[in-house]
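dumping this here so i dont lose it
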């Protein structure tokens, strides 16, 4: 290994080898520091690799104001990170690893082969060449009373006393990939202000589907629909019926608002538009046509193309008497109310909301309570929908924390 670190250079420890931790390792090793990166798993970047399985959506090409708005009320905290390293800089950085990117029809940005593995391989080689020492199967347990860090390793418990530390431990979902949120306790014990981890980009449960919905339609995709919550303009997209409720990209996009409504009121009612392209009066006209001896199911199918899971959902959620009243049935097709009562468990979610609050950090992403300890990535208290916004903010915060650490060490 050829280390670029000067013999007298400060030694820094990075805990967590996801995109945030690896990005900080890059910044710090480039500055000539001795970087030791520790991860509890047998290999680094496992969630990053999983994100590549269905097509690695690494960032988004939309204009900065729209991009920033995806971070909701945390946009002011994320803004400086993205101004320094946003979608454009991220794409340039990916190209620097020899990986091309393309913009999909929705504006989402992907590596040309859609995969995460070639990118991670090239990146890890560059980091190792720069002298970053990666210690896998090394799990951070917290701090000893003297302030040193406790690391569980295959050789037994170790004690670390680096000059500075970055915690980039991820959120609390998909714990089998390494991020399990167990870091909350040691940070809480050191007086760091934390927001509880909650599922984000997650599915939701209904009180109970009928046996028919579960046996015939669990797993069925609901395509070409729109969903509205409260008075917001309904969003177009698709989702999937599950045995316990509903999930999929359209639901994920609304998940923060649905979750907060459930937190406040105990449940949230979304409204499904089964025929987003058609105005309610046209639907009513079609339903009012004579159907002779044909069943209502056949009438719905022939007049409006409603069948399968859409027809089943309409039956499930609409009182029987509506089916004899075209005006009420048309209204139900346009605003079918579905009450959601809880999120699916955090471990199933794509990402986590909550974590280390920005109020607990200074502008360098250093913990005010613990000078010399920095935080980055999904463990910070922000959330965003899918679309590349999660990874972009993880990379950007990892880079900002790395630069912040450099500045602090120099001072
Ligand atoms: C199925 C799925 C698909 C996704 N797809 C996308 C996508 O297409 N686009 C997108 O933008 N985002 C996507 N994401 C989200 C994205 O992968 C995460 O937001 C991102 O990986 C978080 O990066 P991070 O560095 O903060 O944490 P992580 O990637 O979670 O890395 C944290 C690391 O810390 C280690 N660690 C945790 N605790 C300890 C400890 N105590 N000691 C030592 N090591 C520890 C873990 O082993 C892990 O390696 C997806 C997520 C999932 C689950």
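and the seq i came up w/
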């Amino acid at each position: 290994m050829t280390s670029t670190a000067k013999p007298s250079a400060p030694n820094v420890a990075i805990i967590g080898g996801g995109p945030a931790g690896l990005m900080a390792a890059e910044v710090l090793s480039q500055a000539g520091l001795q970087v030791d990166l520790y991860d509890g798993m047998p290999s680094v970047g496992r969630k990053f690799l999983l994100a590549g399985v269905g097509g690695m959506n690494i960032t988004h090409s939309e204009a900065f104001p729209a991009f920033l708005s995806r971070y909701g009320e945390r946009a002011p905290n994320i803004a400086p990170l993205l101004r320094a390293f946003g979608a454009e800089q991220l794409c340039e950085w990916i190209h620097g690893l020899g990986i091309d990117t393309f913009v999909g029809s929705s504006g989402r940005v992907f590596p040309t082969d859609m995969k995460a593995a070639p990118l991670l391989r090239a990146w890890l080689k560059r980091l190792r060449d720069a002298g970053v020492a990666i210690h896998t199967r090394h799990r951070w347990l917290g701090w000893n009373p003297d302030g040193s860090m406790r690391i569980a390793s295959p050789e037994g418990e170790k004690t670390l006393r680096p000059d500075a530390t970055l915690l980039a431990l991820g959120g609390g979902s998909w714990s089998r990939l390494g991020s399990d949120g167990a870091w909350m306790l040691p940070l809480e014990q050191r007086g760091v202000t934390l927001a509880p981890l909650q599922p984000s980009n997650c599915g939701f449960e209904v009180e109970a589907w009928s046996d028919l919905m579960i046996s015939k339609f669990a797993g069925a995709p609901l395509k070409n629909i729109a969903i509205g919550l409260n008075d917001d303009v309904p969003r177009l997209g698709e989702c999937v019926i599950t045995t316990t409720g509903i999930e999929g990209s359209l639901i994920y996009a609304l998940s923060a608002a649905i979750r907060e409504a459930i937190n406040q009121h105990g449940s949230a009612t979304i409204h499904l538009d089964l025929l987003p392209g058609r105005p309610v009066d046209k639907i009513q006209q079609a339903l009012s046509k004579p159907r002779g001896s044909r069943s209502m199911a056949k009438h719905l199918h022939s007049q409006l193309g409603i069948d399968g899971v859409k027809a089943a959902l309409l039956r499930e959620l609409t009182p029987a008497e509506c089916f004899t009243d075209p005006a009420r049935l048309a209204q139900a097709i346009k605003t079918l109310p579905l009450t959601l009562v809880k999120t699916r468990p955090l471990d199933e979610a794509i990402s986590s909301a909550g974590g280390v609050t920005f109020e607990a950090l200074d502008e360098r992403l250093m913990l005010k309570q613990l000078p010399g300890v920095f935080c980055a990535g999904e463990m910070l208290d922000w959330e965003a929908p899918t679309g590349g916004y999660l990874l972009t903010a993880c990379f950007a915060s990892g880079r900002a924390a790395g630069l912040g650490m450099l500045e602090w060490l120099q001072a």
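The two ends are 30 Å apart (CA to CA).
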